[in-house]
Amino acid sequence: MAVSETGAAPPLPAHPDPQLDAILVGSLPHELSYAIGGPFHLLLPDRFDANAAAFQAVLGEFGVEGRVYYAKKANKAAAWIERCALSGTGVDVASAGELRDALGCGVRGEDIVVTGPAKADGLLRVAVLQGCLIAVDALDELERVIDVGRPARVLLRRLPPAQPHSRFGLDDGELATALVRCREAGLEMEGFSFHLSGYDPLMRAELAAELVDLCLKARAMGLRPDRISIGGGFAVDYTDAEHWERFLRDQRPEHYHAGKSFTPADFYPYHSPVAGPDALRAVLTADGLAARLREAGVQLLLEPGRALLDRAGCTVFRVQGVKDRPGYGIVTVDGSSLSLSEQWFNSEYLPDPALLPAQASPGEPYAACVGGATCLESDMVTWRKVRFPTRPAPGDLLVYPNTAGYQMDSNESPFHELALPPKIVLDTADGMTRWRLDRPPLA
């Protein structure tokens, strides 16, 4: 059943990726699908290494002392933490399980920053004993750090004045109290941090400049803060401007299964003209922040998650069946929408999936949405009608590109006793491609 251009949503291809394409056109994806018997995620650790190095290089470009910490919540794979341990990249954790996993993969406590609100006593105790840097989010949490009774390294998290309703951080009065308590208790108060929603480099730079001023004020009190953390919030650029603008302009309910509708505000900004390391460059440039950091002798800490995983992985589903409906089809795959966590935000993952046919079968273009293998009407991996080059068939594979950042496992669940998609680590060293299963998280 051929489809017209009006039957499918506007295309939104991911940026070209020749290295991954060379892997996907071979037999490996189909062999892995056969061996695993279900969906799986492919990981490319060398991309992670390159992304972390690119952020660190920007700091060097501006002559700013600083440190990159990988925000572990972005993806649970051990492969990334193993690379952090080898390269010296720091790790940002927010739970006892994440801390245990980072330590178990060989990351030293001094290379870990512990964030998150209202940290459990057990997490704080281990963090203090291991020499981790702790971002203190509340006054009672500060008291519990002091109660551990051992030397502790802390950052004080600032409530962003531009986001006064944020549930994260200390307001002006709390911050003043916290500084006095740090001095009284003899804590190693190393600096300040903040949690800021959004991707605006200027807003991040303005708040960073305020933290530099806070460091100077705290020094006048006898404390010795010498670093600030600006968190993550470095956008990833998934597609080009032309396709993104066309998609936002032309997408309509008729392009989605069941007339589902989304507004542009529902979507992640899949095209960002300033992304990744360039976004850090924009932060350092704004209001002369880099010069202020150098003059004050203040280090800049970063906690990117998604941005370190840019183009570092993809998700592969196998087609189980196809139904024809008037003007389009419904493809059912051997997984569920829980593996693409934009559903969590009442949105969906927009970069177009690629079709890898099990057998070459030329045909006419075919528009189809993609549903999961559960009995829920809402289990749609892709609500929009994607224009495929030919009608998918059982045994074909659908590859969703660039899913390592927050997509792979943030929301996964073994609903219907469906197994969670395993992660396959691809080692492309020495011009060869080898694969292995990612080590499961430590119990």
Distance between the termini: 50 Å
Query: Helix and strand succession?
Result: HHEHEHEHEHEHEHEHEHHHEEEEEEEEE
CATH architecture of the largest domain: Alpha-Beta Barrel
Q: What is the number of independent domains?
A: 2
Strand content: 15-25%
Shape: elongated
How do the helices and strands line up, and which of them pair or pack?
Blueprint: H1 18-24, H2 28-36, E1 40-43, H3 45-61, E2 66-71, H4 78-87, E3 90-93, H5 96-104, E4 112-114, H6 121-129, E5 133-136, H7 139-147, E6 153-158, H8 172-185, E7 188-194, H9 201-220, E8 227-229, H10 241-250, H11 276-285, H12 289-296, E9 299-302, E10 313-325, E11 328-333, E12 354-356, E13 366-371, E14 380-388, E15 397-400, E16 423-427, E17 434-437
Parallel strand pairs: 1-16, 2-3, 2-9, 3-4, 4-5, 5-6, 6-7, 7-8, 8-9, 11-13
Antiparallel strand pairs: 1-10, 10-11, 10-15, 12-15, 13-14, 16-17
Helix pairs in contact: 3-11, 7-8, 9-11, 9-12
List keywords for this structure.
elongated, TIM Barrel, 30% helix, alpha/beta, 21% strand, 2 domains, Lyase, Ornithine Decarboxylase, Chain A, domain 1, 443 residues, 8-stranded parallel beta barrel, 9-stranded mixed sheet
What does the model show?
The structure is a single chain. With about 450 residues, the protein is α/β, with parallel strands linked by helices. The protein folds into 2 domains: about 5-45 and about 315-435, Lyase, Ornithine Decarboxylase, Chain A, domain 1 (Beta Barrel), CATH 2.40.37.10; about 45-235 and about 270-310, TIM Barrel, CATH 3.20.20. It is about 30% helix and about 20% strand. It is built from 12 helices and 17 strands. It has helices at about 20-25, 30-35, 45-60, 80-85, 95-105, 120-130, 140-145, 170-185, 200-220, 240-250, 275-285, 290-295, and strands spanning about 40-45, 65-70, 90-95, 110-115, 135, 155-160, 190-195, 225-230, 300, 315-325, 330-335, 355, 365-370, 380-390, 395-400, 425, 435. Strands 1, 10, 11, 12, 13, 14, 15, 16 and 17 form a 9-stranded mixed β-sheet that branches. The protein has an 8-stranded parallel barrel with strand order 2-3-4-5-6-7-8-9, surrounded by 7 helices. Helix 3 runs parallel beside helix 11 (about 275-285) and helix 7 (about 140-145) packs parallel to helix 8 (about 170-185). It is elongated. The relative contact order is 0.18. The mean pLDDT is about 95.
